[in-house]
Amino acid sequence: MKKDENCIYIVTLGLLIVPVIVALGSDFISQAEGRVQWVKSKDGTPIAVECAGAGPNLVIVHGGIGDRSRWKPLFPFFAARFTVCAMDRRGRGASGDSADYSLQKGAEDVAAVVNSRPGTVFVLGHSIGGVCALEAAFLTDKISKLVLYEPPLQDRNHDAVATKMENMIRAGKSEQALVTFLQEIVMVSPKEIEEMKARSSWPGRVAGVGKQIREIRALDRYRFDANRMRGLKVPTLLLTGSKTASPDLKRAISSLVDCLPNLSLIVFQGQEHNAMDTVPQQFAETVTKFLLDTKSKAD
Q1: Domain count, the chain
Q2: CATH number of residue 239's parent domain
Q3: How many beta carbons lie within 10 A of that of residue 2, not counting itself?
Q4: 46 shares a domain with 22
């Protein structure tokens, strides 16, 4: 539709306008094209960050599988309103790694990226990335708003599943290990797993499933402190899917609703744990509305 409108516009106004249309078009495209840089975390580990667009800073922290590339399809939705920066969590994508992984280090990585940006920063975290984003809010005062999509932060124990996955990976069955994670921990529906398999990002997610073992165990060690969370004044949007089946995720949502003092909750009807993939425009519009709403500010 846009191409047709541009053609009519060129014909109507004449050839002199062609360079302007081309220039505008290339500027629009470049807004969604990323620029990759590296930020040193507290322990010196380099964290890769890909940024695009212009406007207020929005840092995105991906979840347990994949890397920053899973958020690239949403760059066109965000880049017109924000300087959107998707980071690779430690050990993922182009980021460095360390032998002693912990959620604390994951939070320090997010805080380092936030502190590297000029001015205040919005942060969006998905799944374990949401836990890292939430914890980062206790490490830096530069986070002006948080968006958390189903962070798995309530007490849990999935060591048996992690061991099963570990054995599968050793046996060369990495895809089966990833499916096991999705079925038994995240509890994604068979339909959504098939949709995930059909996406071009699936092979990369399979290749990175080994990192998932340490993250499962790190989350098992995490202890949610409601009293501590009550002191977090950062305006926070909590996102969840109406069809999310995991009792861990449901407990986490309920706990945050009960204790965060400056909270908004939105439920994506008909969605599970990956609404950014299934309804990307709706997802981006929901996040954008909250972040740019001048009424939702810290007390």
Answers
A1: 2
A2: 3.40.50.1820
A3: 8
A4: no
SS3 assignment for 23-54 = HHHHHHHHHCCCEEEEEECCCCCEEEEEEEEC
Per the structure block, which two tokens stand in for 281? 């425009």
Whether 217 is covered by a domain: the verdict is: no
Supply the range of the domain harboring residue 253.
Answer: 33-152+225-292
Asked if the structure places residue 218 within a domain, the reply is no
Across 174-200, b (16+ Cβ under 10 Å) vs e yields bbbbbbbbbeebbbbeeebbeebeeee
pTM (two decimals): 0.86
Average per-residue pLDDT for the chain: 88
* Phi (first) and psi of residue 235, to 5 degrees: -55, 130
What's the rounded mean pLDDT across residues 57-68? 94
Confidence of residue 32 (pLDDT cuts 50, 70, 90): low
Residues in the chain: 299
H or E segment to which residue 170 belongs = helix 159-170
